[in-house]
Amino acid sequence: MDKNLHKGASSKLFEYAKQNRLKQTPTEEMLWQKLRNNQLGFKFRRQHPLKNYIADFYCHECSLIIEIDGEYHAELEQMDYDSGRTFEIEEHNLTVLRFSNDDVKLQIDKVLESIKKYLIPSPSPEGEGNSLQQ
Questions:
Q1: Where are the beta strands (DSSP E) in the chain?
Q2: Exposed e or buried b per residue across 53-91, where buried means at least 16 C-beta atoms within 10 angstroms of its C-beta
């Protein structure tokens, strides 16, 4: 597995991520309470810098990014930006899952079930270590 957790993110982006962790949205907090402390069997990070972006949640072991989209993500310009961002991130062999604030607020169990389908350890390209938890 790629050891580079941050895909070359800048120090400035790390500072932004730190600030974001201090002011997360209520919906991000709601999902974080379900993801933290390996509750789904895998470690998640919140507001994690990756390349030129900050992922709302990131599981390095499964190469999975989870984004929580507020209402402004429904605007055409933002949708185009999000689509481009997803394309760029997926070029690094990462999977991006997007959920709306309403999905998390009203259907948290369905959101968690969707996430669980992607919780499969990524194979190590160099054969380093055992990515399966036993």
A1: 45-50, 53-59, 64-69, 95-100
A2: bbbbbbbbbbbbbbbbbeeeeeeeeeeeeeeebbeebee
The length of the chain in residues reads: 134
CA distance 22 to 25: 10
* Residue where the block lists tokens 């160099």: 126
Residue type, 24: Q
Q: What is the pLDDT of residues 63-79, one digit of tens each?
A: 999 999 876 555 567 66
pTM here is 0.79
Crossing angle of helices 108-116 and 26-35, rounded to 10°: 50
- Triad 34, 36, 38: Cα angle to 5°: 100
* Tokens linked to 39: 């509750």
Q: Which residue has the higher pLDDT, 37 or 4?
A: 37
- Residue 100 pairs in a beta bridge with 69
d(C-alpha 81, C-alpha 64), whole Å: 19
Q: CA-CA distance, 110 to 99, in Å (whole number)?
A: 10
